[in-house]
Design a protein that fits this description.
Structural class: mainly alpha
Distance between the termini: 44 Å
Helix content: 25-40%
Number of domains: 3
Strand content: under 5%
Low-confidence stretches: none
Largest sheet: 2 strands, antiparallel
Strand order of the largest sheet: 1-2
Mean pLDDT: 85
Number of strands: 2
Length: 124
């Protein structure tokens, strides 16, 4: 487990500003059907999700979320509002399109790019 207590004990602690954080990460993938019936697992997960979402939030202005909820919310926002892109990236995309004689990948009139610092564009 990267950065966790066992790694710290082995001298490989994750550090921030010279002090151990004690934060660890685990990534795993399992075939549920190797452990239990997938339908029963889904029912258990549905119950778990319902229980958490029905809990009273600590902050009334924020709902209780389960893993995946922030990502679904971000997906909905991006589909509705578009994907935020830094002006420097837009400027570079425009420069590359121009250098390669391609149409710009966005509406040039929708954004002001004068004075935006650009990367060096190589020719196509």
């Amino acid at each position: 487990m990267y950065g966790g207590a066992k790694e710290e004990a082995a001298g490989g602690a994750a550090e921030v500003e010279g002090r151990a954080t004690g934060i660890g990460h685990f990534f795993g993938a399992l075939r549920i059907d190797g452990f239990r019936d997938p339908a029963a697992f889904k029912r258990t997960m549905d119950t778990w999700i319902h229980t958490f979402r029905a809990a009273e939030p600590v902050d009334a202005a924020r709902s209780v979320m389960v893993p995946g909820d922030p990502e679904w919310a971000a997906t909905e926002a991006r589909e509705r509002d578009g994907v935020p892109v830094k002006l420097a990236v837009l400027a570079d995309l425009l420069d590359v399109a121009r250098a390669c004689a391609l149409p710009p990948p966005f509406d040039e009139g929708a954004v002001e790019l004068r004075g935006v610092k650009r990367a060096t564009v190589l020719s196509c």
